[in-house]
Amino acid sequence: MGDVRLITADCGTIELSGDRSSVAELQRILQGWLIAHAREVLVPWLEQASAQTGLEFKRTQIRRQRSRWGSCSARGTVSLNCCLLFQRPEVVRYLLLHEAVSHSSHEPFTSLLAAGRDFRAQPPGARSRAAGRLATRSCMGVRHMTRFRISIEEARKAIPGPNGERYAVLLERGQLEVELYQPQNTDPQQPHRRDEVYIVVAGSGTYVVGNERMTFGPGDFLFAPAGAVHRFEFFSQDLTLWVIFYGPDGGEAPILIA
To answer: Quick one: which of 43, 74, 143, 199 has the fewest CB in 10 Å?
Structure first.
């Protein structure tokens, strides 16, 4: 019967044709369609909410998180779960504003609520009925999944990101965020809101933090306090780093030793 093909019908349904014997292949195709459709709906909706409120973000990505509806990384990337398509519009808008506020300091989230902002606004474009017919349970799963191990091989496959990002968010738990970072040619990053740790997987170069410069190599541990200007210079093309953000905005209070 040939390769599997996905067809969207005018009546608001989707159809699969071809060899449907592989459940894993069917899941892969359906998930790819869902992520692409969610990008068409959610990204313009987030941009609309941002324009209406003055809240800013840097970029977006659509994923299929197993335990979160959305998040905002320390780099200002808003990650949205494709399964938000199955939620009520007021719930989605509430979450979009919450994630935008996580990166912007223009207006606290509670003040948006107190001001009586309308969270019931519809997205710029009606939700697809085809998306609504897919089961939420099959997308989100029924268990909270904790990552106990992430291999470097698995992490490297996530870079580059869908928009060419040279980093990938791999784990988010409370105030902990773990990424893999692979800059190329230059390091364009800006100071971050939280304390940050780098662990060098591969490569070497010069690490600049504040007024200090130091060389580094594989296995080294590097630290950047919240708000500190820092970057990598003169680094090798194979530079690969684990990145760990932790603690509150503004960083942990320094311990003073008498």
So the answer is: 143
pTM for the structure as a whole = 0.53
According to CATH, the superfamily of the domain at 152-246 is: Jelly Rolls (2.60.120.10)
Least confident of 26-40, 123-137, 235-249: 123-137
CA distance 132 to 135: 8
Query: Which residue shows structure tokens 């089961």?
Result: 135
Query: Which one-letter amino acid corresponds to residue 160?
Result: P
Could you report how far apart the first and last alpha carbons of the chain are, in Å? Answer: 77
**Tokens describing residue 50:** 């941002």
Cis peptide before 44 (omega within 30 of 0): no
Tracing tokens 């014997």 back to the chain, one arrives at: 21
**Could you tell me how far CA 91 lies from the centroid of its own chain?**
19
Separation of alpha carbons 167 and 232, rounded Å: 14
Domain boundaries, the chain: 5-140, 152-246
**Alpha carbon distance 124, 160 (integer Å):** 29
Angle in degrees, 0-180, between the axes of helices 89-103 and 23-53, rounded to the nearest 10: 70
Please return the burial class of 26, using the count of CB atoms within 10 Å of its CB with bins 0-12, 13-18 and 19+: middle
DSSP state, 184? B
pLDDT digits 0-9 by tens, 143-192: 233 458 889 998 998 898 777 889 888 887 878 889 999 999 999 888 88
